[in-house]
Design brief:
The complex is a heterodimer. In chain A, 74% of the residues lie in helices and 11% in strands. Chain A is elongated. Chain A is mainly α. Chain A has one domain. Chain A starts with a helix and ends with a helix. Chain B has 3 domains: 31 residues; 118 residues, Immunoglobulin-like (Sandwich), CATH 2.60.40.10; 103 residues, Immunoglobulin-like (Sandwich), CATH 2.60.40.10. In chain B, 13% of the residues lie in helices and 60% in strands. In chain B, strands 1, 2, 3 and 6 form a 4-stranded antiparallel beta sheet that branches. A 4-stranded antiparallel beta sheet of chain B has the order 5-4-7-8, with no helix packed on it. In chain B, strands 9, 10, 11 and 14 form a 4-stranded antiparallel beta sheet that branches. Chain B is rod-shaped. Chain B starts with a helix and ends with a strand. Chains A and B meet through strand 2 and helix 4 of A and helix 1 and strand 8 of B. Strand 2 of chain A pairs antiparallel with strand 8 of chain B.
Chain lengths: 152, 259
């Protein structure tokens, strides 16, 4: 009877999380998939893009899944911070610190193109920092709420 | 705390929406911008070879283009700078197009520059071209390329042959100097005058002559110049000085020994 109750609790607790995690994984992976399809014609100019994106996607999804499974604990915010950090590092690395260069062959000569995306990168980093800040504030709120509950 | 979290969430969402919208519209706009070059034209202007490159920009995107700056540096094979030029267009508003011309000037006037050598020798010039433009007043973009252009010397293989003398009278002779060169320049002919002075071993002027020149592009000049000289001053060797005054350049003097 006790075992049955335990397994029921387990199903009630984890099945929705598994479904939520699976949904989030699909939702997260879709934009990456479309981005990869969009970048594919230019693959020769960015040979590093695909392996980098795959690694990034894998790490991001791991943190996402772990975050979902640890929801209701302070660790979900820890993994939230880690996930946002991964995103921030990815943007900084993928945009080469804001200066993107590529060489396009043109009638025997090579045209070097340099795009300064530092403004966009600054905005992306700002968003990530806000995300980290939000997770930290939520973590503090969560811990203080728990302490208050214990005291009462 | 909740208000702070809510405020951070909204701020994050607003910035994300802004980034996505800006990125999408920027990509769309960039695909509707055309930058191109027309057929370059070369002409001569008071001692300069001017290479005129038509430049057009069609901006049918959603954002302005600003601070368009095209620069071209011309260098010789040793890396010495021969010419530096830039063209600046302050603003190309959205849904507009501009046409301008970028001029590259190379000084070939022998009296004022060190490039006399290029009047007599073919060469290959290195071109460093760069085009900078600011997209949406926020994203600077730069395209640059290196290329080479061949240079054809207008007085290639300039040389004099054996000087011969014919008696004019008892005290004077006519010195005949064979002169030849090839005009390798694809851009201009050698049209004007050539003054030839002949000196003996003691740097005494024996005589001079002025000849017309009319040598079109990719053609050769092979002719003789005659001048009456004092028989008593002839030493059998010395120098011939050439002065050129053409529509493209003027140089003086080009010294060649004889004898």
């Amino acid at each position: 009877m006790v075992e049955k109750g335990h397994s029921k609790t387990f199903v009630r607790k984890f099945v929705p999380r598994i479904i939520k995690a699976a949904l989030l994984v699909v939702i997260t992976y879709l934009p990456l998939y479309f981005l990869s399809a969009f970048v594919e014609p230019f693959q020769s100019f960015f040979p590093w893009y695909e392996p980098l994106t795959n690694i990034f996607a894998a790490v991001f999804i791991i943190f996402l899944v772990v975050g979902v499974f640890t929801s209701g604990t302070v660790y979900q915010y820890v993994f939230g911070v880690a996930r946002t950090l991964v995103v921030m590092i990815f943007f900084i690395y993928a945009l080469n610190g804001g200066i993107v260069t590529l060489a396009v062959p043109n009638e025997g000569a090579s045209v070097n193109i340099m795009v300064d995306l530092r403004v966009i990168l600054a905005m992306l980093v700002l968003v990530c920092l806000l995300g980290i800040g939000k997770n930290v504030v939520q973590a503090i709120d969560f811990v203080s709420a728990k302490v208050e509950t214990k005291e009462i | 705390m909740r208000y702070a979290v809510r405020a951070l969430s909204w701020a994050t969402k607003i910035i994300w929406i802004f980034i996505v919208l800006f990125s999408a519209t920027a990509v769309y706009s960039a695909m509707n911008v055309r930058i191109g070059f027309g057929q370059p034209q070369a002409y001569l202007s008071s001692g300069f070879v001017v290479l005129s490159i038509p430049l057009f920009v069609n901006n049918y995107g959603l954002y302005d283009l600003s601070e368009l700056n095209m620069t071209v540096d011309v260098m010789d094979s040793n890396g010495s700078l021969l010419s530096e030029s830039s063209t600046l267009v302050a603003l190309i508003p959205k849904n507009s197009s501009i046409e301008t011309t970028h001029n590259v000037s190379i000084n070939i006037d022998g009296a004022t520059s060190q490039v006399q050598i290029y009047l007599f020798n073919d060469a290959v010039f290195n071109l460093d071209m760069s085009l900078k433009v600011k997209f949406a007043h926020a994203v600077p973009l730069q395209a640059s390329m290196n290329t080479t252009i061949p240079w054809g010397a207008p007085l290639y293989n300039f040389s004099i042959g054996q000087i011969s003398y014919n008696y004019v009278d008892l005290t004077h002779q006519e010195a005949i100097i064979p002169i030849s060169f090839d005009n390798h320049s694809p851009h201009f002919g050698v049209d004007g005058f050539m003054r030839v002075e002949i000196y003996n071993d003691n740097d005494e002027l024996l005589g001079f002559s002025v000849s017309d020149l009319n040598v079109p592009s990719h053609s050769s000049y092979d002719s003789q110049v005659g001048m009456v000289v004092d028989d008593s001053k002839i030493t059998g060797s010395g120098e011939v000085h050439f002065y050129f005054e053409t529509s493209a350049f003027s140089i003086s003097p080009v010294v060649m020994p004889y004898g």
